[in-house]
Amino acid sequence: MLARLFKNITRNQVELPVDIVSIISEINNLYLAMEERLANEELQHRSKELSEQIRSGTAGEFLLPEAYALVKLACRRVLGIVVHDVQLYGAIMLYRGHIAEMKTGEGKTVTAVFPAFLQALEGHGVHIATVNEYLAERDSRKMGDIFRMLGLTVGCIIAGMSPAVRKAEYLQDVIYSTHVELGFDYLRDHLVLSTGEKVQRGLYDIIIDEVDSILIDEARTPLIISAPPGSGQQYLFFIDEKIKKLSESHVQIVESHKHVVLTEEGMDYCENLFSVDNLTKQEHSELYHYIVQALRANYVFKRDVDYVIIRHDDGSEEAVIIDPSTGRPMLGRRFMEGLHQAIEAKEGILVQGQPKTLATITLQNFFAMYAQICGMTGTAMESKDELRDIYGIDVVRIPTHRPVIRKDLRDLLFFTEEAKFNRVINDIRRIHETGQPVLVGTADIKRSEYVSSMLTVAGIPHRLLNAKHIDEEAKIIEQAGAYGAVTIATNMAGRGVDIKLEPGVKELGGLYVLGTSRHESSRIDNQLRGRSGRQGDPGYSRFYASLEDEMLWQYYPERLLDELENANFDLLEPIPRKRFFKGISDAQKQVESQHFFMRKQLLAFDCVLNLQRLAMYSIRDALLETGEVHAKLTDSIPDVILNIVQGFFSNSAESFNFAGIMAAVRSVFPDRRPLKLEFQDEVTADTITVSLASQISLIFEEITELCGESVHQVERQAMISALDLHWMNFIEAVEEVKKGVGLQAYGNMDPYIQFEKEISTMFEEMMHAIRQDSLRNVWLQLQRLRPNVAC
Ligand SMILES: Nc1ncnc2c1ncn2[C@@H]1O[C@H](COP(=O)(O)OP(=O)(O)OP(=O)(O)O)[C@@H](O)[C@H]1O
C-alpha cells in the first residue's frame, strides 16, 4: 500500500518513481506531437535551438523532456524501434550521473544516446567508453545515424590511429572509444611538447558502458606508458663503460650536494664519445641525465660508505643504501632518479626497475578527472557500495521492459573436474538433440579447447571461439541463437553482444547457457547468464562446478569440505544437498573481498600520487600554453641559489665554506666572470643568496638579451625536458617507496601517511631539482648559441 504512494504504473505496467513517470509522460507526449509535425530536417533545427538555450545557461534538466523526445523520434526513424519507458528511465538516471543497472539485452546502447545527446549540446564533446574496440566501432556506426539526424557529429577512436586522426575524432560531438584509449590519450597528452600536439580537448562527460567491468574488474591494473627501449640495462652498462674513460679535467665534483657536472671540456669529450652534436639539446636530455647519474655513481657514491653490495643465498647481488644516520642497510629502498640503476651498472650487477614508466594513472583517478561520470551495466547492484565509496556514484536498478522468464537452474557441484565435464558433455548432447541452441562458457581458453575436443569425440558439431579476435568472436556469438548451434566461449567473451534467437528457437525453450565453472566474480556469471532470456525471451542457464576448480580448490570453506569427506556421497554424481552449494558463493565472496582490498590499496596510493600528478600536469600545461617562461626562470634563480647555500649551512653556520658555495653555484651557472660577496648585514644563507642571486640574474639577463628571439624556444624546451625527466624518475621512485612502505612495518604508523609524507618531501626535492636543471640547461645552451658572450 505504502509503495503505491511513491510508485506509479507506466503504460508498460512497470512500477517507476512518481516524479520519473511524470517526466516520461512529458517526453512521450512531446514525442507523439513531434512525430506528426516534425520532418527529419526540422529535428536538426530544433536541436540547434536547444543547444543555444543550454549554452546560454538554461539547465539541461529543464530541457530534458524535449531533448529526449527528439532522440526518441530519431531512434524511431533511424532504427525503427520505439524506445521503452524503462529505457527512458535509465536515460534520465544516466543524465543525473548515476549508474543504471539494466538487465542484459534491455537496449543499453540506445539508452546511452539520450544523455549523450543532451550533454553534447553543451559543446564540450561527450565520451562513451565501451569495453572493447569492436563495440566502440559498432556502436559509433549504429548509433551514428541517430546523432547525425539530430545534427550532431560522431567520432570513434581505436588503437593504431595517428595523433592527427585522433585529434579530429575528439573534435566531434560524441566520441566512442575504449576506456584504455581514452586513458592513454590523456597520459600521452601530458607528454607532448606543444599544446597543438594534444589530441583531447578536455574531459567533461563520460558514459561508461559495462561500467562494472571497467570500474571494478579492470581497476586493479593501472594504465602505464613506458619509456621506449634505449633506457634498458645494456644501455646503462654502455654509458657506464664510457664514463669510466673520463679524466679529472672533464668533471667538477660538488661533494656537499653529492653532485657532479661536466666541464666544457668534459661536455665536448662526452659529445664525441656518444656521437651527439649537443648534449644539452632536448632530444638528448635522457642521455645527458644518464651520464650525470653515471658520473655521480662513479665519482661521488662510494661502495661500503653510501651503499653496500649484498649477496643473497641464490647468488644474486643487490646494491643496498646505507642509512647515513644509523649506518644500517636500508633494505628495499633505492636511490631516486636513476642513480640506483647507475650504481648497479657501475658494480656490474643486475640493473633493476626497467623499463621506466613515463606516465601512469589508475582508472579510478582517470575517471575522476571527468566533470561527470555515469554508466550502465546489467550487473552493478552487487558492487553498489564500492561504486559509491570510490566513485561517489549511486546505482539505480531499472526494471525490465518485460518480465525475465529465463530459468536459472540450480548449480551442479561435483567432486572432480572429470565427473563435471562428463556430465557437461552428456547434458550438451541431450539439449542439442532437441535443436535448442547451447552457449557453453568456460573459465579460460585451455578449458574451451578441452570441451571442444570432448565434443568432437562425442560427435557433436560446435563452434569454438579462440579469444584472439574480439570482432570475429562477437560475430560468432551473435549467431549462437541459431537452431541446433553449440558455441563454446570463455565466460568473459561476448559481453555486450546481442544474441538473436532464430525463428522456432523460442518454442524449444530459447538459448541454453551452460557455464562450466563459477567465475571469481558473481557479476561475470550473471553476465554469462544474461546472454539468454533477453527482452523477455525464454531461456535457461545452469552452472557446473567441481571442488577441483581453481577458485573452489582455494576458497571452498574447510568446514564444508570436512563434512563432505564424511558424507559418503557418490563421487561421480552431483553433490546432492543444497547447503553445499552455499560454499560456492562463500568462496566467491572471499575472492571478491580480496580483490576489493587490492583495488582500495592501489587507489589509496594513487590518490596520494594523484595530487602531485595534477600539480605537475598543470605546471606542464601552463608551460605549453604560455610559451614564454623567461620570467619564471629568472624568478627561480634566488630559490635555486638559496637551496645550494642552505646545504652549506645545514651543519654549522660558522664553518661555512665559501669556496664550496662558489663551486656549487658555478656548477649550475657555469660562468667564468668573477662573483663577489657583498653583505650589508651579518653573513647568513639569505644574505649570501641575495648577493649572489642579484649578480647571477644580471649575467643571465645579459646572456639572454644577446641571444635574441631563440631564447624563448631554448628556455621552454629546457624546462619541459627537465620536468619530464624528473617526473619520470619521480614515478619510478614512488613505486620503490610504495614497495618499501609495504615491506616495512613502521611501528604503529599508517603506511599511507608514511607514504604521503615521503612522497611530499620527494616532490619538493624534485621541484628544486627541476628548477636547478632547467636553469643549468638553459645556461649551457645559451652559451653555446653565443660562446663568445659568457665565457
Ligand atoms: N525499444 C526497443 N525496442 C526493440 N528493440 C530494441 C529496443 N531497444 C533496443 N533494442 C534492441 O535490443 C537489442 C539489444 O540491445 P543492446 O545490445 O543494446 O542490449 P544491452 O542491454 O546492451 O545488452 P548487453 O547487456 O548484453 O550488452 C538490440 O538488437 C537493439 O537494437
Automatic annotation (TrEMBL):
InterPro entries: Helicase_ATP-bd, Helicase_C-like, P-loop_NTPase, SecA, SecA_CS, SecA_DEAD, SecA_motor_DEAD, SecA_preprotein_X-link_dom. Residues 3-576 form the SecA family profile domain. SUPFAM superfamilies: Helical scaffold and wing domains of SecA, P-loop containing nucleoside triphosphate hydrolases, Pre-protein crosslinking domain of SecA. It is found in: Cell membrane; Cytoplasm; Membrane. CDD domains: DEXDc_SecA, SF2_C_secA. It catalyses: ATP + H2O + cellular proteinSide 1 = ADP + phosphate + cellular proteinSide 2. Residues 408-575 form the Helicase C-terminal domain. Its EC number is 7.4.2.8. Gene3D superfamilies: Helical scaffold and wing domains of SecA, P-loop containing nucleotide triphosphate hydrolases, SecA, preprotein cross-linking domain. Residues 24-53 form a coiled coil. It is an enzyme of class 7 (translocase). ATP binds at residues 87, 105-109, 498. Keywords: ATP-binding, Cell membrane, Coiled coil, Cytoplasm, Membrane, Nucleotide-binding, Protein transport, Translocase, Translocation, Transport. PROSITE patterns: HELICASE_ATP_BIND_1, HELICASE_CTER, SECA, SECA_MOTOR_DEAD. Residues 89-247 form the Helicase ATP-binding domain. It comes from the Bacteria. Part of the Sec protein translocase complex. Interacts with the SecYEG preprotein conducting channel. Has a central role in coupling the hydrolysis of ATP to the transfer of proteins into and across the cell membrane, serving as an ATP-driven molecular motor driving the stepwise translocation of polypeptide chains across the membrane. Belongs to the SecA family. Monomer and homodimer. Part of the essential Sec protein translocation apparatus which comprises SecA, SecYEG and auxiliary proteins SecDF. Other proteins may also be involved. This is Protein translocase subunit SecA.
